[in-house]
Fold this protein.
Amino acid sequence: MEVFSSMDQYDHEQVVFCYDEASGLKSIIAIHDTSLGPALGGCRMWPYRSEEEALWDVLRLSRGMTYKNAAMGLNLGGGKAVILGDPRRDKSEILLRAFGRFVHTLGGRYITAEDVGTTVQDMAVVRYETPYVAGLLEKSGDPSPATAFGVWRGIKACARWVWGSESLRGRTVAVQGVGKVGSALARHLRDEGAHLVITDVDSERAQGVGRELGAEVVEPEAIYDVPCDIFSPCALGAVVNDDTLKRFRCKVIAGAANNQLAEPRHGHALEELGILYAPDFVINGGGVTNVADEFEEGGYNRDRAFARIATIYDKLWRIFTVAREEKIPTFLAADRVAEERIATIRRLHRIYLPGR
Protein backbone atom coordinates (compact mmCIF):
# COMPACT_ATOMS: atom_id res chain seq x y z
CA MET A 1 0.00 0.00 0.00
CA GLU A 2 1.30 3.48 -0.91
CA VAL A 3 1.06 5.43 2.35
CA PHE A 4 0.80 8.95 0.95
CA SER A 5 -1.66 8.02 -1.78
CA SER A 6 -3.76 6.24 0.85
CA MET A 7 -3.71 9.36 3.03
CA ASP A 8 -4.63 11.48 0.04
CA GLN A 9 -7.62 9.28 -0.76
CA TYR A 10 -9.41 10.33 2.45
CA ASP A 11 -7.51 13.61 3.04
CA HIS A 12 -5.69 12.60 6.22
CA GLU A 13 -3.48 15.10 8.04
CA GLN A 14 -0.99 12.80 9.75
CA VAL A 15 -0.09 9.16 10.21
CA VAL A 16 2.40 8.12 12.89
CA PHE A 17 4.08 4.71 12.91
CA CYS A 18 5.15 3.71 16.42
CA TYR A 19 7.65 0.94 17.18
CA ASP A 20 9.28 -0.03 20.46
CA GLU A 21 11.53 -3.07 20.50
CA ALA A 22 11.57 -3.50 24.30
CA SER A 23 7.78 -3.82 24.61
CA GLY A 24 7.09 -5.26 21.16
CA LEU A 25 4.78 -2.35 20.38
CA LYS A 26 3.77 -1.93 16.75
CA SER A 27 1.16 0.78 16.48
CA ILE A 28 -0.24 3.24 13.96
CA ILE A 29 -1.93 6.51 14.95
CA ALA A 30 -3.95 8.25 12.24
CA ILE A 31 -5.17 11.84 12.54
CA HIS A 32 -7.74 12.52 9.88
CA ASP A 33 -8.98 16.07 10.44
CA THR A 34 -8.61 18.59 13.27
CA SER A 35 -10.78 21.38 11.87
CA LEU A 36 -13.21 21.06 14.79
CA GLY A 37 -10.64 20.41 17.53
CA PRO A 38 -8.14 17.79 18.71
CA ALA A 39 -8.61 14.35 17.21
CA LEU A 40 -10.45 11.97 19.54
CA GLY A 41 -10.74 8.26 18.83
CA GLY A 42 -10.14 4.95 20.54
CA CYS A 43 -7.20 2.58 20.40
CA ARG A 44 -7.99 -0.79 18.83
CA MET A 45 -5.77 -3.85 19.46
CA TRP A 46 -6.24 -6.56 16.88
CA PRO A 47 -4.25 -9.46 15.35
CA TYR A 48 -4.15 -7.99 11.86
CA ARG A 49 -3.08 -10.31 9.08
CA SER A 50 -0.66 -7.71 7.74
CA GLU A 51 0.67 -4.21 8.35
CA GLU A 52 -1.18 -3.09 5.24
CA GLU A 53 -4.48 -4.29 6.69
CA ALA A 54 -3.77 -2.42 9.93
CA LEU A 55 -2.98 0.80 8.05
CA TRP A 56 -6.14 0.53 5.97
CA ASP A 57 -8.23 -0.07 9.09
CA VAL A 58 -6.83 2.90 11.01
CA LEU A 59 -7.32 5.20 8.03
CA ARG A 60 -10.95 4.19 7.62
CA LEU A 61 -11.68 4.31 11.34
CA SER A 62 -10.08 7.73 11.86
CA ARG A 63 -12.05 9.22 8.97
CA GLY A 64 -15.19 7.74 10.49
CA MET A 65 -14.38 9.49 13.78
CA THR A 66 -14.14 12.86 12.03
CA TYR A 67 -17.60 12.40 10.55
CA LYS A 68 -19.01 10.97 13.79
CA ASN A 69 -17.75 13.84 15.92
CA ALA A 70 -18.97 16.37 13.38
CA ALA A 71 -22.40 14.78 13.06
CA MET A 72 -22.79 14.65 16.85
CA GLY A 73 -22.03 18.37 17.13
CA LEU A 74 -18.79 17.86 19.07
CA ASN A 75 -15.85 20.26 18.98
CA LEU A 76 -13.46 17.41 18.25
CA GLY A 77 -11.68 16.12 15.20
CA GLY A 78 -11.21 12.54 14.14
CA GLY A 79 -8.37 10.17 14.93
CA LYS A 80 -7.77 6.53 15.72
CA ALA A 81 -4.98 4.23 16.82
CA VAL A 82 -4.37 0.55 16.24
CA ILE A 83 -1.97 -1.78 18.01
CA LEU A 84 -0.95 -4.86 16.04
CA GLY A 85 -1.27 -7.94 18.23
CA ASP A 86 -3.57 -10.34 19.98
CA PRO A 87 -4.97 -8.58 23.08
CA ARG A 88 -5.36 -11.91 24.87
CA ARG A 89 -1.71 -12.82 24.40
CA ASP A 90 0.38 -9.77 23.58
CA LYS A 91 -0.98 -7.03 25.84
CA SER A 92 1.27 -5.95 28.73
CA GLU A 93 1.87 -2.95 30.97
CA ILE A 94 5.09 -2.01 29.17
CA LEU A 95 3.38 -2.19 25.76
CA LEU A 96 0.51 0.06 26.88
CA ARG A 97 2.88 2.52 28.51
CA ALA A 98 5.02 2.63 25.37
CA PHE A 99 1.88 3.43 23.39
CA GLY A 100 1.08 6.20 25.88
CA ARG A 101 4.48 7.76 25.33
CA PHE A 102 3.91 7.91 21.59
CA VAL A 103 0.50 9.50 22.15
CA HIS A 104 2.19 12.10 24.33
CA THR A 105 4.63 13.04 21.57
CA LEU A 106 1.66 14.42 19.63
CA GLY A 107 1.13 17.09 22.28
CA GLY A 108 -2.65 16.75 22.47
CA ARG A 109 -3.38 16.59 18.75
CA TYR A 110 -4.70 13.08 19.41
CA ILE A 111 -6.67 11.94 22.47
CA THR A 112 -7.00 8.18 22.89
CA ALA A 113 -9.63 5.99 24.57
CA GLU A 114 -10.67 2.35 24.69
CA ASP A 115 -11.87 0.42 21.64
CA VAL A 116 -12.04 -3.17 20.46
CA GLY A 117 -9.35 -5.16 22.24
CA THR A 118 -8.66 -2.53 24.90
CA THR A 119 -10.44 -1.61 28.14
CA VAL A 120 -10.85 1.33 30.49
CA GLN A 121 -8.35 -0.45 32.75
CA ASP A 122 -5.85 -0.46 29.87
CA MET A 123 -6.41 3.27 29.39
CA ALA A 124 -5.55 3.81 33.05
CA VAL A 125 -2.15 2.27 32.29
CA VAL A 126 -1.72 4.47 29.20
CA ARG A 127 -2.56 7.44 31.46
CA TYR A 128 0.67 6.83 33.40
CA GLU A 129 2.53 8.26 30.41
CA THR A 130 0.17 10.92 29.00
CA PRO A 131 -2.80 13.04 30.07
CA TYR A 132 -4.30 12.71 26.58
CA VAL A 133 -6.58 9.82 27.52
CA ALA A 134 -10.37 9.91 27.81
CA GLY A 135 -12.99 7.49 29.09
CA LEU A 136 -11.24 6.65 32.34
CA LEU A 137 -13.16 4.79 35.02
CA GLU A 138 -13.25 7.77 37.38
CA LYS A 139 -14.65 9.96 34.60
CA SER A 140 -17.08 8.77 31.91
CA GLY A 141 -15.89 5.16 32.15
CA ASP A 142 -16.95 2.35 29.83
CA PRO A 143 -18.68 3.93 26.79
CA SER A 144 -20.60 0.76 25.90
CA PRO A 145 -23.84 1.61 27.78
CA ALA A 146 -23.88 5.05 26.16
CA THR A 147 -23.31 3.61 22.69
CA ALA A 148 -26.08 1.05 23.22
CA PHE A 149 -28.49 3.72 24.46
CA GLY A 150 -27.82 5.83 21.37
CA VAL A 151 -28.32 2.88 19.02
CA TRP A 152 -31.62 2.06 20.74
CA ARG A 153 -32.76 5.67 20.26
CA GLY A 154 -31.69 5.49 16.62
CA ILE A 155 -33.58 2.25 16.04
CA LYS A 156 -36.73 3.89 17.39
CA ALA A 157 -36.30 6.72 14.89
CA CYS A 158 -35.93 4.16 12.09
CA ALA A 159 -39.07 2.36 13.21
CA ARG A 160 -41.08 5.57 13.16
CA TRP A 161 -39.75 6.47 9.70
CA VAL A 162 -40.58 3.07 8.20
CA TRP A 163 -43.73 2.02 10.09
CA GLY A 164 -45.09 5.28 11.46
CA SER A 165 -44.55 4.31 15.11
CA GLU A 166 -41.39 4.30 17.19
CA SER A 167 -42.63 1.41 19.31
CA LEU A 168 -40.56 -1.75 18.99
CA ARG A 169 -43.06 -4.01 20.73
CA GLY A 170 -43.55 -7.12 18.62
CA ARG A 171 -40.79 -6.17 16.18
CA THR A 172 -38.20 -8.84 15.41
CA VAL A 173 -34.63 -7.57 15.75
CA ALA A 174 -31.63 -9.66 14.70
CA VAL A 175 -28.60 -8.57 16.72
CA GLN A 176 -25.23 -9.59 15.32
CA GLY A 177 -22.70 -9.54 18.14
CA VAL A 178 -23.64 -9.47 21.82
CA GLY A 179 -20.49 -8.13 23.40
CA LYS A 180 -20.63 -5.14 25.72
CA VAL A 181 -22.58 -2.92 23.32
CA GLY A 182 -24.70 -5.58 21.62
CA SER A 183 -25.85 -7.16 24.88
CA ALA A 184 -26.71 -3.76 26.40
CA LEU A 185 -28.68 -2.89 23.26
CA ALA A 186 -30.47 -6.24 23.40
CA ARG A 187 -31.60 -5.46 26.95
CA HIS A 188 -33.14 -2.16 25.80
CA LEU A 189 -34.92 -4.00 23.00
CA ARG A 190 -36.13 -6.79 25.29
CA ASP A 191 -37.45 -4.28 27.80
CA GLU A 192 -39.50 -2.67 25.04
CA GLY A 193 -41.05 -5.95 24.00
CA ALA A 194 -39.06 -6.75 20.86
CA HIS A 195 -38.49 -10.36 19.77
CA LEU A 196 -34.74 -11.00 19.69
CA VAL A 197 -32.66 -13.24 17.48
CA ILE A 198 -28.98 -13.03 18.40
CA THR A 199 -25.61 -14.41 17.45
CA ASP A 200 -21.96 -14.04 18.40
CA VAL A 201 -18.69 -15.66 17.37
CA ASP A 202 -18.34 -16.58 21.04
CA SER A 203 -21.03 -19.26 21.26
CA GLU A 204 -20.92 -19.42 25.07
CA ARG A 205 -21.52 -15.71 25.32
CA ALA A 206 -24.39 -15.92 22.83
CA GLN A 207 -26.01 -18.76 24.75
CA GLY A 208 -25.63 -16.89 28.03
CA VAL A 209 -27.22 -13.71 26.69
CA GLY A 210 -29.91 -15.79 25.02
CA ARG A 211 -30.86 -17.41 28.33
CA GLU A 212 -30.83 -14.09 30.17
CA LEU A 213 -33.02 -12.27 27.65
CA GLY A 214 -35.14 -15.10 26.31
CA ALA A 215 -33.66 -14.59 22.85
CA GLU A 216 -33.40 -17.06 20.01
CA VAL A 217 -29.75 -17.92 19.30
CA VAL A 218 -28.47 -18.77 15.81
CA GLU A 219 -25.07 -19.54 14.33
CA PRO A 220 -23.04 -16.49 13.21
CA GLU A 221 -23.41 -17.16 9.50
CA ALA A 222 -27.16 -17.77 9.79
CA ILE A 223 -27.98 -14.31 11.15
CA TYR A 224 -28.09 -12.78 7.67
CA ASP A 225 -30.92 -15.09 6.62
CA VAL A 226 -33.18 -14.43 9.62
CA PRO A 227 -36.58 -12.96 8.67
CA CYS A 228 -36.72 -9.80 10.78
CA ASP A 229 -37.88 -6.22 10.85
CA ILE A 230 -34.50 -4.81 11.88
CA PHE A 231 -30.99 -6.18 11.36
CA SER A 232 -28.60 -4.72 13.95
CA PRO A 233 -24.88 -5.28 13.27
CA CYS A 234 -22.95 -4.80 16.53
CA ALA A 235 -19.68 -6.59 15.76
CA LEU A 236 -17.03 -5.71 13.17
CA GLY A 237 -17.58 -3.85 9.92
CA ALA A 238 -18.19 -4.57 6.22
CA VAL A 239 -21.25 -6.72 6.96
CA VAL A 240 -23.18 -5.14 4.08
CA ASN A 241 -21.42 -6.65 1.09
CA ASP A 242 -22.04 -8.49 -2.17
CA ASP A 243 -22.86 -11.74 -0.41
CA THR A 244 -25.10 -10.43 2.37
CA LEU A 245 -27.13 -8.10 0.16
CA LYS A 246 -28.75 -11.15 -1.41
CA ARG A 247 -29.65 -12.58 1.99
CA PHE A 248 -31.05 -9.74 4.08
CA ARG A 249 -34.72 -10.19 4.96
CA CYS A 250 -35.30 -6.95 6.82
CA LYS A 251 -36.62 -3.42 6.28
CA VAL A 252 -34.03 -1.61 8.44
CA ILE A 253 -30.29 -1.97 9.10
CA ALA A 254 -29.32 -0.11 12.26
CA GLY A 255 -26.52 -1.12 14.60
CA ALA A 256 -23.40 -0.20 16.54
CA ALA A 257 -20.67 -1.56 14.24
CA ASN A 258 -18.32 0.82 12.45
CA ASN A 259 -17.92 0.86 8.66
CA GLN A 260 -20.91 -1.41 8.02
CA LEU A 261 -20.85 -0.81 4.25
CA ALA A 262 -18.04 -2.76 2.59
CA GLU A 263 -18.12 -0.27 -0.29
CA PRO A 264 -20.16 2.88 -1.01
CA ARG A 265 -22.00 1.02 -3.77
CA HIS A 266 -23.53 -1.22 -1.13
CA GLY A 267 -25.24 1.82 0.36
CA HIS A 268 -26.77 2.53 -3.04
CA ALA A 269 -27.84 -1.12 -3.25
CA LEU A 270 -29.68 -0.92 0.08
CA GLU A 271 -31.57 2.10 -1.24
CA GLU A 272 -32.60 0.15 -4.33
CA LEU A 273 -33.74 -2.76 -2.16
CA GLY A 274 -35.92 -0.48 -0.05
CA ILE A 275 -33.93 -1.14 3.13
CA LEU A 276 -33.51 1.90 5.39
CA TYR A 277 -29.89 2.23 6.49
CA ALA A 278 -29.02 4.18 9.65
CA PRO A 279 -25.53 5.56 8.90
CA ASP A 280 -23.19 3.92 11.39
CA PHE A 281 -21.18 6.95 12.42
CA VAL A 282 -24.37 8.69 13.51
CA ILE A 283 -26.31 5.92 15.23
CA ASN A 284 -23.24 4.70 17.14
CA GLY A 285 -22.19 8.19 18.24
CA GLY A 286 -23.32 7.74 21.84
CA GLY A 287 -20.00 6.47 23.13
CA VAL A 288 -17.91 9.35 21.85
CA THR A 289 -20.55 11.84 22.99
CA ASN A 290 -20.34 10.36 26.46
CA VAL A 291 -16.54 10.61 26.47
CA ALA A 292 -16.59 14.14 25.03
CA ASP A 293 -18.63 15.34 27.99
CA GLU A 294 -15.45 15.03 30.07
CA PHE A 295 -14.19 18.17 28.32
CA GLU A 296 -17.17 20.30 29.33
CA GLU A 297 -16.83 22.93 32.04
CA GLY A 298 -17.16 21.26 35.42
CA GLY A 299 -16.23 17.84 34.07
CA TYR A 300 -18.31 14.82 33.21
CA ASN A 301 -22.05 14.90 33.91
CA ARG A 302 -23.91 11.71 33.03
CA ASP A 303 -27.37 13.26 32.78
CA ARG A 304 -26.11 15.95 30.40
CA ALA A 305 -24.23 13.38 28.32
CA PHE A 306 -27.20 11.03 27.96
CA ALA A 307 -29.52 13.91 27.11
CA ARG A 308 -27.22 14.71 24.19
CA ILE A 309 -27.01 11.07 23.18
CA ALA A 310 -30.80 10.90 23.04
CA THR A 311 -30.72 13.45 20.19
CA ILE A 312 -29.37 10.72 17.89
CA TYR A 313 -33.07 10.14 17.20
CA ASP A 314 -33.41 13.70 15.86
CA LYS A 315 -30.10 13.62 14.00
CA LEU A 316 -31.14 10.50 12.10
CA TRP A 317 -34.56 11.99 11.36
CA ARG A 318 -32.84 14.99 9.79
CA ILE A 319 -30.59 12.73 7.73
CA PHE A 320 -33.54 10.65 6.51
CA THR A 321 -35.32 13.89 5.56
CA VAL A 322 -32.29 15.19 3.64
CA ALA A 323 -32.00 11.84 1.85
CA ARG A 324 -35.66 11.93 0.81
CA GLU A 325 -35.63 15.57 -0.27
CA GLU A 326 -32.39 15.29 -2.24
CA LYS A 327 -33.15 11.77 -3.52
CA ILE A 328 -29.85 10.33 -2.28
CA PRO A 329 -29.03 7.31 -0.08
CA THR A 330 -28.93 7.92 3.65
CA PHE A 331 -25.17 7.30 3.92
CA LEU A 332 -24.53 10.16 1.49
CA ALA A 333 -26.97 12.39 3.34
CA ALA A 334 -25.09 11.72 6.59
CA ASP A 335 -21.77 12.59 4.91
CA ARG A 336 -23.29 15.82 3.62
CA VAL A 337 -24.55 16.89 7.04
CA ALA A 338 -21.16 16.22 8.66
CA GLU A 339 -19.18 17.87 5.86
CA GLU A 340 -21.33 21.01 6.02
CA ARG A 341 -20.51 21.47 9.69
CA ILE A 342 -16.78 20.90 9.14
CA ALA A 343 -16.73 23.39 6.26
CA THR A 344 -18.61 25.99 8.31
CA ILE A 345 -16.18 25.80 11.23
CA ARG A 346 -13.21 25.92 8.87
CA ARG A 347 -14.49 29.26 7.56
CA LEU A 348 -14.79 30.53 11.14
CA HIS A 349 -11.14 29.67 11.77
CA ARG A 350 -10.10 32.35 9.29
CA ILE A 351 -10.76 34.84 12.10
CA TYR A 352 -7.57 35.25 14.11
CA LEU A 353 -7.85 35.00 17.89
CA PRO A 354 -4.81 36.10 19.92
CA GLY A 355 -3.38 33.25 21.94
CA ARG A 356 -5.19 30.58 19.90
The longest strand covers residues 25-33. The longest helix spans residues 51-71.
